[in-house]
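Reopening this one. Same input as before:
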Amino acid sequence: MDQATITVAAELRFLLPPKAQHEPVAVQVDGVNSLLHIVESLGVPRTEIGRFLVNGNPELAGYQLRKGDQVVVEAPTRPQAVPEQRFLLDVHLGSLARRMRLLGIDTSYSNDADDPELVEQAIAENRVLLTRDRGILRRRALPVGAFVRGQLADEQLADVLDRFALTPVPWTRCPACNGLLRDASAEEVAPLIEPGTLRTYRDYRRCEDCGQPYWRGAHAERLSQIVESSTPDR
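Same output, byte for byte:
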């Protein structure tokens, strides 16, 4: 059987089957499938591939392997530039969506959108799709996407901030709906909050889209910690 050997960058090997995570992978050369198809079949989505090196030379995704080829799969260079800092998160990343909005990053999220709807929205609104579902990242129609590393929301946020060159603007977006926040008077928000809150706080903001009022209440310290740890240079 004619074979080629594929070596995946160390930071991407967690995407491979356990038996293939510690050594190069031998694959069959069939003269039909593209290099991209073969690497994706191993578990690495196209969005997580920086470039292919075949026998030391850069090659395109459509390259067809030959007997004895030695392939290296590199990870994307970090941080990636995103001219329009607009993101779309899948149904499993609600906590991450709230944290990104807290940092003022334009983040769309719905808890009931299916894969075709997500791809359609990403295209229509020019958004980067973030997900932990490798299947959706393999869809050819998806222009830009990324696999989010980490199980916990704080880990996921750290990964997003490491992967993309972003300019956070904390406290400017509604964590609930992604609308922009503006200053609001105590009189304006009075019908929407408890009298005790109104007596305790004087500085308020309100979402221009959903109308939700905000103030630096009991959770302010925890939220501030998220912002400060995510924007150390600000």
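So the earlier flakiness isn't reproducible anymore. For the record, Helices lie at 35-42, 94-102, 115-125, 134-137, 153-163, 186-189, 195-200, 220-230.
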